Amino acid sequence: MNTKKKIVVLGSANVDISARTPVFPRDGETVTGDTVLVSTGGKGTNQAVSAARAGAAVTMIARIGNDFFADIPAKLYERENIDTRFVTRDTEHGTGCALIEVHTGSGENRITVVPGANMAVTAADVAAAEEEIAAADILLTQRETHPDSIAAFLAAAKKHGKKVVLNPAPALPIPDEWYPMIDTITPNETEAEKYTGITVTDDESALRAAQIFADRGVRCVIITCGSKGVFCAEFEKDENGNTVPAFHARIATYRVQAVDTTGAGDSFNGALCTALAEGRTIVDACRFATTAATLSVTKAGAAESMATRAEIDEVYNRFYHSGKTITPMARKIAAEHHLFWRAIEGTGENGTVTEADVRRELKV
How much is the pTM? Predict the structure, then answer.
């Protein structure tokens, strides 16, 4: 009996051409890179692979071209056991493509995307998958397909009473009528600022940005903040009908040496939906997803870098349920720096993490 939770992903399919370079070129400049990698990407595909590897049964709604690039995502879907009944071969548009520069020192990236067939995904493509949507545990989409397809996806979710997560990337305008149909929105700090006008620098500003999303109709807001972890907030109506925070929290992350940050946000979103579909609380789902995202940046590539369930569980269980202790001052310092202290080797009695251990990790 298949006990995996079912996730339907509406999204993009790209071929990523990544070049690793010790320096990003300036305008008109040519630099020499180290390596080149041709792989599968697109936020929808990355998130589908992340969810599948994290333990979900995934169905994909997408379009690929009728060109030689199309076989790359098609073969990936097959390897990852992703249901492709609703992945269409488009005869008029090429497969989406992304040109990616990855800095060998920092792991940061610069990306140029050519959408191709992704922008040909239609409301009819969504309608064809309505039975799958009705049977899903959770739905996931982004902003890399045609807006008509996203509107149809949100409407189908509402029709069938399904929770839907929108990753608003890239940060294109969101119609007002979409917001009440979105259960959870997952911008990063930059995207949150573009949508709300609030520069997210701490928990207070993150909550103000989240409140704006909530006032527009979104129930749960998750803002990913890179090495500073994740801010999440859920909202409810008070006795006067006002939208107010039910709770909010900061989930810290642990630090690793990043090899390639491409796809980290996608890894987070796919794993988040898997955890939510399994009935985890929003805080626990964010912990699970943060673990997946952190693991992904230690590998090169996008879809190929997504962590498996075994990898996520091993790290998650070791750091979130390790029984470690920490001194009060060390905890205070770790919280101020959003440091995931469970990942620190403690030198105190019985392995307790001390102030010196935290400061050593921060190199203070």
Answer: 0.83
